[in-house]
Amino acid sequence: MSQIIVTSAYPELSILVKELAQELDIDLNVIEAVLEEAVAEVSQFVEKNKSEVIISRGATAELLRQTIPLPLVSLAASEFDIFQALTKALTISRQIGYLNHPSLTDQEFISQAQAILGQEIKYYPYRTMHELSLQMEKAHYDGCEVVVGGGHWGLRLADAFGMAGLLIYSSRSTVAGALVQANELAELRVGMKREEEHQRKVSAAKGLVSHYTFRDLVGPALKDTISKAERFSQVEATVLIWGESGTGKELFAQSIHSNGPKRNGPFVALNCVAVPESLLESELFGYQEGAFTGAKKGGKRGLFELAHGGTLFLDEIGKMSLNLQAWLLRVLQTKEVRRLGGDRVIPVDARIIAASNEDLQAAVDAGQFRSDLYYRLNVLNLYLPSLRQRQQDIPELIEYISVKLAAKLGYSPALSKEFAKALKLYDWPGNVRQLENVLERYAVLVGEGKPLELSELIISFPELRDLLVNSEQVAEILQSPRGQPNLAICSLTDPPSKPINEELGFQTSDQTGLIGEYDTEQIPDRVVEEEIIIRLGTLADMELQLIDAVMHRCRGNKSNVVRLLNISRTTLWKKLSLKLKFVGSDR
Question: Which residue of 258, 313, 497, 518 could cross-link 253, Cys pair, CB 3.0 to 4.6 Å?
Answer without folding.
Answer: 313
